[in-house]
Amino acid sequence: MSRFALAAGAALSGVIAFSSTTFGETAPGAGPYKILNTSQTMGTGGIDYVFADSEDRQLYVPRGNQVLVFDLDTLKSTGSITNARARGVAVDPKSHHGFCSSSPVVMWDTKTLETIKTIEVQGGPDGILFEPATARVYVFSHRAPNATVIDAKDGSVVGTIDLGGAPEQAASDGAGHLYVTLEDKDKIAVVDVNALKVTGNFELGGKGGGPAGLGFDVKNHVLFAFCHEPATAVILSSDDGKILATLPIGKGVDGGGFNPNTMEAFSSQGDGTLTIIKETSPTSFEVEQTVQTKNRAKTCTLDAKTDHIVLITTEPAPASAAAPAAPATPPAGDQPGGGRRGGGRGGPGLLDILVVGR
After folding, report:
1. Which of 77, 128, 272, 276 has the smallest CB count inside 10 Å?
2. How many other β-carbons are positioned within 10 Å of the β-carbon of residue 176?
3. DSSP designation for 47
4. Over pLDDT 90: what percentage of the chain?
């Protein structure tokens, strides 16, 4: 993503866990979604994408120079992937191999959290996605090469793709096509995952600019592009790019998705809102609810087993809390990937995890 918080190294041995606290809920009667669970963990370093491994019940949060791992059900810390200054995580559920978008990419065993290998890549690793049809991992970069493709079974680099713009989030139809939001071009690139090339682009037609998050109803071929300016969800057909509808969302979007179990798209925003969009039919959509979350909780992930949406943010540490000392690291903008705009702190602070559901 292009809005990476400033990061500093963190040592898991110095982590301090705080008791669960309710940060905010929707007003009574406002809708079915509310904050169900929260946790706070002391540490250092910035954050970016959060990823829920619904099958292995693990939650991955890149922070500072490592990827923190939590139990997805209890939100308790279970370990970390060290020496991994990453922005996102992807997991192959069949091989149980995990990957993070760092330079180099770190590959690990999701059962033991032991590192298997590191993989040298070019560009600035940022977003990341596991593509199920080919069992490959896509590591995205705002500069060339825009996508590096890795075999999830052995960690070999299969190839690279020029997407023609700065990629943010991607979604697969599981049948040979990958859709990628290009934030700087106001487009969605269509990728042939077998040929490893772009076969088309869907223009957002001036309805929304700076697409960041992406949701995808694979069954009905509907894409939800969550945009910055204006703060809008542009809803379009994945067959031909025809725009079906536009709906308002919160400000500062940086992530989104779609839950086929509930037929709802969702987007998380830096203004402390989570927008829930109901797909009542393949051509009819409405904003079902705006959930109040927490300031800068702008990335999210779906727990497909529970239908819960998990968000993360950071905040300053309480004055009374002692934080572990950690070696300083340069700002994210000086690291591969750079360009992350938005709030973040390199010093001691709290990592907040919020679980939203019915």
Report:
1. 77
2. 14
3. B
4. 82
Listed by start position, the domains of the chain span: 12-357
Q: Which CATH class is domain 12-357?
A: mainly beta
- From 166, 63, 56, 146, select the one nearest 108 (Cα to Cα): 56
What are the structure tokens assigned to 336, written together? 């591969």
C-alpha–C-alpha distance, residues 159 and 147, integer Å: 8
| Beta-bridge partners for 32 | none
The model's pTM: 0.88
**Residue 229 carries which side chain, given as an amino acid letter?**
E
Whole-angstrom distance, CA of residue 152 vs CA of residue 129: 11
For residue 254 the two structure tokens come to: 């940086």
Tokens of 285: 């959509």
Alpha helices, H only, the chain: none
Average of per-residue pLDDT values in the chain: 88
Contact status, residue 213 vs residue 268, Cβ threshold 8 Å:
yes
**Which residue in 269, 337, 349, 303 sits closest to 37, CA to CA?**
303
